[in-house]
Specification:
Elements lengths: L4 E5 L3 E6 L5 H14 L1 H4 L3 E7 L5 H13 L4 E5 L6 H15 L6 E4 L7 E4 L3 E4 L7 E4 L3 E7 L2 E4 L9 E6 L3 E4 L2 E4 L16 E6 L2 E6 L2 H6 L3
Parallel strand pairs: 2-3, 3-4, 5-7, 6-8, 7-9, 8-10, 9-11, 10-12
Antiparallel strand pairs: 1-2, 11-14, 12-13, 14-15
Length: 224
């Protein structure tokens, strides 16, 4: 007997093949039963989903996704249309979502970074402590330093020029945001050392790293 619902999975998503002749209410029940049986196998992973076998209206697609959620621990993060290179599309969609959730998933690190210490974060990071000369911190997202920044930091290392760097005391050896780099020896138009103790924010504007006092106007201009 032909299965009304067939699930095929790859590393980044799930292809659900649906019987084109079965009534929708019966199909919806079959989807729920199928994912209830497979709940332990999939766990609570983030997955993209694609449908094949029959055309679905937006409302039908939403009902099927809800049936999946109700009968498993999967987090359906997006749906992808049928395509021969679907696996690559799944990965691209999930990568976009990871970037958009960057600061909501920011990690917190407590402690000082002493000379010679290097650390890279795959999200944004909030550092409670100092980054001393000779230390280096890199992040795919933005970096917030609740302390003195006197070493090297690189934000948006995967090419994210919208990343920013905030420090309570900003006097770094080098800053990098996306593809832009500023050093303490550069001229004042490109980069300037902060000699006071006012909180500062560094961001990219016209391919140049700019540093301003951290006030409401500066915060409003940041792209999260």
């Amino acid at each position: 007997m032909k299965e009304p619902v067939v699930i095929k999975a790859n590393n980044f998503g799930i292809l659900i093949i649906l019987d084109k002749d079965l009534g929708f209410d019966s199909l919806l029940e079959a989807v729920g039963n199928k994912f209830k049986e497979s709940a332990n196998f999939f766990g609570n992973a983030d997955m993209a989903v694609a449908f094949d076998g029959r055309k679905l209206t937006f409302e039908e697609e939403e009902q099927i996704i809800q049936a999946i959620i109700d009968n498993s621990s999967l987090n359906v993060v997006c749906t992808v249309d049928h395509d021969p290179i679907r696996e690559a599309q799944f990965k691209a969609k999930l990568d976009q979502i990871a970037v958009s959730k960057d600061m909501s998933l920011a990690k917190i690190h407590k402690g000082n970074f002493r000379s010679g210490k290097m650390m890279e974060f795959d999200t944004g990071v909030i550092i409670i402590g100092d980054i001393n000369p000779g230390a280096k911190v890199s992040s795919k997202g933005s970096i917030i330093v609740l302390g003195s920044l006197k070493g090297e930091v690189a934000a948006g290392i995967d090419g994210n020029n919208d990343a920013f760097i905030i420090a309570l005391d900003m006097n770094p050896i080098q800053l990098r945001i996306g593809a832009s780099i500023g050093r303490c020896s550069d001229d004042s138009e490109t980069y300037s050392k902060a000699k006071d103790l006012e909180p500062k924010v560094a961001f990219v504007e016209n391919n140049t790293i700019c540093i301003e006092n951290l006030d409401k106007n500066a915060l409003d201009s940041l792209r999260l």
